[in-house]
Design brief:
single chain; alpha/beta; Immunoglobulin-like; Aminopeptidase; Membrane-bound Lytic Murein Transglycosylase D, Chain A; 3 domains; six-stranded mixed β-sheet; elongated
């Protein structure tokens, strides 16, 4: 009997050790962004932690239970302005680790553990919301003419960033670097074009949530939102680009979600809500305006997608030759035309090599720019410089697939008036022909 009890105790000690193995900190990464900073601790196992803040000076103190403290917490990367340094301090017990994040000013912390997702293992994520972020650099607008109409504003979104690398190619290329490079090239092309101006959702290697990206476009009053991504698949064979727009199902859902947020009504009405005292009327008017805006945005997105595809297919193979619709988080703005451009499969070795070639990225950016410019030259937004110039100099170069009836509908003028202005005896037009479009 005694022998059996001893055997049972031995089994219990093996199965349930008195002290679980200590967790280990594998590394520290810091991702600064304009409004916040993300600090990431890579760990061997899921962390058990508590935290508190201190002031004079500002610090965030994190206690990690049963964790070794022999890992170097210095980092070679840029930490930004908010985080001064990360160091160890005296822990609660000898088996714990206390980490202090020294801050240059007050920040609101949010901490959460993340389970392993490639390419990372267990992580403790610390998001620090800056109480006084540096003011963004002012956007310089050409004021060479006092009567100059506004620029067409294009919001460019480089997919992924920071701790989120996006897809990873077989040679180790990160999608986040490819997309940021293409986005910056596209930004430069747009800003060099008179009458156009680009704004970026992110300008460096930091993370922005997918839902936040279209909000930035809205805050900047963008006329178009373009999100740049690189596709991936579990097998290396798929290749080619594609262009995506918001699906009708997602659009209907977003419409309902927006209407529930009554605080957005004034924004959607552009000030009209200030003179509406009847809240039920305001709700109905907002719903009507938003519905019309969404219809216009989705039609614009689809038309522009076709333009982008026609340019991209001259640069790279297309995985899909027609616009694709999906419920993608970055395409959830019902009031801003939005497209997502997949520039190729980073999981395909040949396309990964191309995407790492600067000249190929330049050509991809050029194709997106050319399509965008051509589209807005044809249908510039109201109040823009291009709309003003188009109204005073109404000429049109015939493109493939266009007809007199289509042009008459686009310019809101009778077919007979176009024929009369151009001395045409038939309804036949040829590609490349420049037509004068009468005002009435």
């Amino acid at each position: 009997m005694v022998r059996n009890i001893g055997l049972i105790l031995c089994i219990l000690l093996v199965a349930y050790p008195l002290h679980a193995a200590q967790n280990d900190i594998d590394g520290l990464r810091i991702w600064p962004s304009p409004a916040s900073t993300r600090v990431v601790l890579d760990l061997d196992a899921a962390p058990e932690f508590t935290y508190f803040t201190l002031s004079n000076p500002h610090r965030l103190v994190i206690d990690l239970s049963n964790t070794r403290r022999d890992t170097d917490l210095s980092v070679a990367q840029d930490m930004g302005e908010l985080v001064k340094r990360v160091r160890y301090s005296t822990p609660k017990t000898n088996k714990d680790a206390r980490i202090v994040v020294e801050l240059s000013r007050k920040a609101d912390p949010t901490l959460f553990a993340m389970t392993p997702t490639a390419p990372y293992g267990h992580r403790l994520v610390i998001d620090l919301l800056d109480s006084n972020p540096p003011a963004p650099a002012p956007i310089v607008i050409d004021q060479s003419s006092n009567n100059r109409d506004r620029d067409i504003i294009i919001a460019i979104d480089a997919g992924h960033g920071g701790e989120d690398p996006g897809s990873i190619g077989p040679s180790g290329s990160y999608e986040k670097h490819i997309t940021l490079s293409i986005a910056k090239k596209l930004e430069a092309m747009i800003n060099n074009e008179r009458g156009m101006r680009a704004i970026m959702t992110r300008t460096a290697d930091y993370y922005i949530s997918p839902n936040r990206r279209p909000e930035i476009a809205r805050e900047k009053k963008a006329d178009l939102f373009i999100s740049v991504h690189a596709d991936a698949f579990t097998q290396p064979e798929p290749r080619g680009g594609s262009v995506w727009v918001l699906s009708m199902r997602r659009a209907d859902t977003e419409l309902g979600r927006w209407m529930e947020k009554t605080e957005r009504h004034s924004e959607l009405l552009g000030g009209a809500a200030e003179v509406i005292s009847d809240k039920s009327s305001e709700l109905y008017l907002a719903e009507t305006i938003l519905g019309l805006s969404m219809d216009h945005s989705m039609a614009t997105s689809f038309d522009l997608s076709n333009e982008v595809i026609s340019e991209l297919k001259q640069i790279t193979r297309m995985h899909k030759r027609t616009p694709q619709a999906a419920s993608l988080a970055v395409l959830t703005s019902p009031d801003i035309p939005s497209i997502l451009v997949e520039v190729g499969f980073i999981s395909n070795p040949e396309e990964e090599k191309n995407l790492n070639w600067s000249k190929h990225r330049e050509r991809l950016a050029q194709s997106i720019f050319t399509a965008t410019k051509r589209y807005f030259k044809q249908v510039p937004p109201d109040g823009t410089l291009w709309a003003s110039e188009r109204a005073t100099n109404r000429t049109h170069k015939v493109q493939s697939g266009e007809s007199l009836s289509l042009l008459a509908q686009r310019y809101n003028v009778a077919v007979s008036r176009i024929k009369e202005a151009n001395n045409l005896n038939s309804d036949v037009v040829r590609i490349g022909q420049v037509l004068t479009i009468p005002s009435t």
